Amino acid sequence: MITKLSSAQSDFQDNLSKLLSWESVSNNNVAKTVDDIIANIRIHGDKALVDFTNQFDRMSASNMGELTIKVSTLKEAYDSLDDKQKTALKTAADRVNSYHQKQKQATWTYTEDDGTMLGQKITPLDRVGLYVPGGKAAYPSSVLMNAIPAKVAGVEELIMVVPTPDGVVNQLVLAAAYISGVDTVFTVGGAQAIAALAYGTQTIPKVDKIVGPGNIYVATAKRVVFGQVGIDMIAGPSEILIICDGKTNPDWIAMDLFSQAEHDEDAQSILLCPDADFIDQVQASIAKLLPTMERKAIIATALKDRGALILTKDMDEAVEISNQIAPEHLELSVEDPQSMLDGIKHAGAIFMGRHTCESLGDYCAGPNHVLPTSGTARFSSPLGVYDFQKKSSLIMVSDEGANVLGEIAAILADGEGLQAHAQSARYRIK
Q1: Residue 329 annotated to the active site
Q2: What is the CATH architecture of 3-20+236-365?
Q3: Which of 39, 94, 245, 347 could pair covalently with 330 via S-S, beta carbons 3.0-4.6 A apart?
């Protein structure tokens, strides 16, 4: 059902590499389809977007007006929720907002002795496109995690796109858009929605950046349009890695592994533990609990194809292997997780302690759940307010400063053979 490995095996590294191998945008047929869709959107705009939406989402729209949801409708969706849903959604939104408020950056400057002022100006993006998946599942939490930091950053306009196959609209998703401050929602999805956001159509305005997860067509399209617009990341399948000392309830660990495996068949769930008996207990818990899961077929496939229970020499080696994997979600299910924190170098989010399950981070803890996957935590960070702001360098050289810096710049420009650069600097030397 799930692979068992030991770090002591001579072929462990080979087996681990095979387990981790995954390429998000490697299908040539997908790439060709995406290129064709993007070309059609660029040429035909709204008409192509409506046609693709009718084709892929089994809709029968005749114009973009039928695929547009305004703020008043979003409010109606929020008002339609029962009290428990409203409270849960509002509480989660407030916690996400509070956390991201602490990420806000401000313009800063300093002045040198000669009066030269240097600094950095922080400016929010003007307009951002938010892609929210539809189809297999609805993700109101994804709306909160993408929209709220954008609004905290000061983004003026937030355009959301969400596919609604067969015309089925999820009220919780629309309600999340309302309390997150989304300005307009279009019920379109796929590569065609990414193209519309990147290049603009008669109805959908061109955005500065596109954020939000999607399927392989969405991921491929985001990669293609990068440069025309900014993107957050190319997201791969969801991942969880658990380091456990063997003293947590094995049912808890099994369910935590399930929590990512249920996303889709490509999701990855891995346990690292130095206790062989505990690994056997977790395996038994998996066998016991799996039949009770509604998405048991998806979980079973994910665990079989990409899951693993790995026996390590000790906890230090577990940390080393974790750093090699650089997981999206890392659970430290141990007695004293803070003592291990210095050793953790690469992880999208770190869940510390036996009671901190990853799903709390997905919904309501506060930190963002949009995280680097497929080992990119080695060089990437969670989505945050900083992703919706850009920085401009500030330079104001005083008269006295121009004498000193002008000579330095002129000498270096002469060395590069750039005469105009050197002369421009020398003009300002008294």
Answers
A1: yes
A2: 3-Layer(aba) Sandwich (3.40)
A3: 347
